[in-house]
Amino acid sequence: MGVELTYRDAVAKAIVDEMNRDDSVYIMGEDIGRYQGTFRVTQGMFDDYGPKRVIDTPITEAGFTGIAIGSAMSGLRPIVEMMTMSFSILALDQILNHAAKVHYMTGGQASVPMVIRGPGGAAKQLSAQHSHSLEGWFAHCPGLKVVAPSTPECAYGLFKTSVRDDNPVIFTENPGLYTVKGELPDDDDFTVPIGKARIAREGTDMSLVCYSRMVHVCLEAAERLAEQGISAEVVDVRSLLPLDMETISASVAKTNRAVVVYEDWKFGGFGGEIASRIGEECFDDLDAPVLRVGGLNVPTPYSRVLELECIPSADSVLAAVERLS
Amino acid sequence: MAKAAKAPKELSETPEKLIDLYRQMVFIRFFEKKCNFAYRQGKIGGYMHTYIGMEATGVGFNEALRPGWDNVITAYRDHAQPLLMGSDPLKVMAETMGRVDGYSNGKGGSMHIYDFENRFFGGWGIVGGHIPIGTGVAFTAKYKKEDRVTVCYLGDGAANQGVVFESYNMAALWDLPIIYAIENNEFAMGTRLEYHASDTELYKRGIPFGIKSERIDGMDVLQVKEDAARIVEWVRENQKPYLVEIMNYRYEGHGAADNDRQLYRTKEEEEEAMLRDPIGRLARQMVDAGAATEADLEKIDDEEEERVEVIFEQADASPHPDPSEVYDHVYTDMTPEMGH
Predict the structure, then answer these.
(1) Residue B2 above 50 pLDDT?
(2) Cα A71 to the chain's mean position, in Å?
(3) Which residues of A are catalytic?
(4) pLDDT at A2
(5) Looking at the domain assignment, is residue A265 inside a domain?
(6) What is the pLDDT of residues B109-139, one digit of tens each?
(7) A171 and A212 fall within a common domain
(8) Which residue among A26, A132, A315, B285 is least packed, with the fewest CB closer than 10 Å?
(9) Which of A67, A90, A164, A244 to mutate to test binding with chain B, by most B CBs within 10 Å of its CB?
(10) Which of A58, A74, A105 faces B104 most closely, judged by CB atoms?
(11) Quick one: pLDDT at residue A1?
């Protein structure tokens, strides 16, 4: 039997395992070393690996992301922690305009093996500037890979794969997941491939297609639907780019109905891409329009009451399901 | 004796080296003139920026570097650096023309030349964006305990970008072996230095970060070579960053599409600047010192012009990429979603 870990500890274990495996792997970010990390993912690492490989940066996201890119182009494999993914907005030029373009602009001469990771999405009352779900924005950009695991097992396996990938990978960790517990396989070589969705719960009547923390929201919704005699399948997309349409389509072919659930703003969000692809590729299988459940189209408010109003819940999923029939 | 006193620098280089420096500068100038020609012909498209007038900076600095070991990175005025570092000029010219024989098989273009074999890290289009990346290349050298020096060129316009200051700070904080070489050609595109910099002495901006900083003359190749040798040696020895502001002048517009130079400078100013032409200056020094005759130099001019002509014709003979190549190199291991 494997060990039970929290999502936070699973990410930490993956970081440590990869640093032990490969000397060229290092991690940099704000307050990740001496301060042990704002969300404590890097706790203890500074003591074990020292300032050469666990690097406290100044609060200059664009600058240190660029340094990581340059180091990746010249032989290292950096892991960049964004204290929150909202701060990656300051580094967008470096990520979109530089990292994502290197392999192409150089005609394949160079690559950027780096991982940018951190909490993305609403935590608890961090309000408008610290609560963004940006994974869909990154998934819009060719040259990047984007993953959003929902369980400790997926986080551990996908993180190791991300570090070993020769392309820039955005690895988003919803802060609401850090305390989620799960079992890791008892296998040091365990990895999860990027670009493979998984069925989080089998069902026959509809597909709830989701990623990151919304997987847990959908699992709760599926449980409640089961009480009503409705069998919902939960498809955990895991990887936004590349997107595993094969698994999603197979699920819809079986259930004939789909609801896409994502925490990002509903309008123009990544769920729209998934919904559109289901519409294009599964039209003959569908018995109802593909619906989206997304975050409210407002800046995330501070008030807990208002904040909870913004984030999709099992109730919002059930409300959408009612519109399906 | 009088002549030697008038041009003391000649004595510091052998006649062979002087001819070599002259030849390198002339080659760059003819290469860039040919690029301008190709642009006017419509064979080079998009944005293209030539190094005409700035040759002494690149040639002099490159002399101080260890070929194949030290790193160079620059912005989009990027033809000269790889040519000086040993890159294949055919591949550089073909890339500017978007052909398959270019360094990036036509996917980069004039602004995005890369040659990693010779440790030329590009070739970047966002003003200031490559400064942290160059700093990261220096970071790797330190991480791997290799005594490579990284030269990161930037323009006076780029010197104002936020990431440049972020990079200065981290390079100094972490003792990175990098030289920030500001090529101050007095214009950020069409905006003169005094209209874009609160203090026009840009070298001073390294000082608050504890970075050794100075300003040098970039129109005198012998002086640049001497200063660069000293600076590169210092960085290799001390493993710390250095900031050097190199004063030069571009004779052409910002880019090949900039045909309105009189909006930001007068013809008289350009004529005055031509008197400081680094190629003419070295020619005079060499003739005065007896290192070469005017006929010798004319012969070199003809040879380099002819060499560039051959390069151009070879590059022009290279095919355009096949449309099917459009998906290559988006990723190392997969293709993106395909189709419109």
Answers:
(1) no
(2) 24
(3) 61, 130
(4) 79
(5) yes
(6) 999 999 999 999 999 999 999 999 999 999 9
(7) no
(8) A315
(9) A67
(10) A105
(11) 59
Contacts with A60 from chain B: Cβ below 8 Å = 163, 166, 169-170
Rounded (5°) CA angle A208-A88-A26:
100
pLDDT-derived band at B5 (thresholds 50, 70, 90) equals very low
The residue among B71, B163, B175 with the most chain A CBs within 10 A of its CB, best to mutate, is B163
Residue B162 and residue A59: Cα distance in Å, rounded?
A: 12
**Encoded tokens for A289:** 């329009």
Q: In this structure, are A179 and A203 located in the same domain?
A: no
- Report the pLDDT value the prediction gives residue A3, as an integer from 0 to 100: 87
Residues A9 and A50 in one domain: yes
A57 contact B CB<8A: yes
Question: Mean pLDDT across the stretch B88-92?
Answer: 98
Domain check: are A109 and A207 in the same one? no
How many independent structural domains does chain A possess? 2
Amino acid at site B263: L
Longest CA pairwise span in chain A (Å):
58
Tell me the nearest-neighbour CA distance from A276 into chain B, angstroms: 14
Rounded CA-CA distance A232/B329 in Å is 40
Q: Do A105 and B112 touch (CB under 8 A)?
A: yes
Distances (CA, A) of A96 to A149, A218, B129, B164: 22, 31, 11, 18
- Is B124–A98 a contact, with Cβ atoms under 8 angstroms apart? yes
Q: Is residue A191 part of a domain?
A: no
Q: What percentage of chain A reaches a pLDDT higher than 70?
A: 100
A62 inside domain: yes
| For residue B1, pLDDT beyond 80 | no
Q: Are B136 and A72 an interchain contact pair (Cβ–Cβ within 8 Å)?
A: yes
Judge whether A166 is closer than 8 Å to chain B, CB to CB. yes
CATH class as words, domain B2-255+263-316: alpha beta
- DSSP sequence for A243-302: T-HHHHHHHHHHHS-EEEEEEEESTT-HHHHHHHHHHHHSGGG-SS--EEEEE-SSPPPS
For chain B, what are the domain ranges? 2-255+263-316
**Do A168 and A221 reside in the same domain of the chain?**
no
Structure tokens that stand for B48 in this block = 């293209």
Q: Which residues contact A175 (CB under 8 A, 6 or more apart)?
A: A39, A84, A119, A120, A121, A122, A123, A124
Residue A192 counted as domain residue = no
Contact B126 A76 (CB under 8 A): no
SS3 B202: helix
Contact A2, A189 (CB under 8 A): no
- Among B134, B140, B333, select the one facing A76 at the smallest CB separation: B140
**Residues B132/A65, Cβ–Cβ less than 8 Å:** yes
> ω into residue A242 within 30 of 0, thus cis?
yes
The answer to whether the CB of A238 falls within 8 A of the CB of A198 is yes
- The residue-averaged pLDDT of A218-237 equals 98
Q: Are residues A167 and A206 in the same domain?
A: no
Identify residue A168 by its one-letter amino acid code. P
Instruction: List helix spans (H) across A118-256.
Output: 135-139, 152-164, 214-227, 245-255
Residue span of the structural domain in which A63 resides:
4-183
A234-274 per-position pLDDT tens digit:
999 999 999 999 999 999 999 999 999 999 999 999 999 99
The verdict on a CB contact (< 8 Å) between A103 and B104 is: no
Q: Which residue of B134, B144, B330 is in closest CB contact with A75?
A: B144
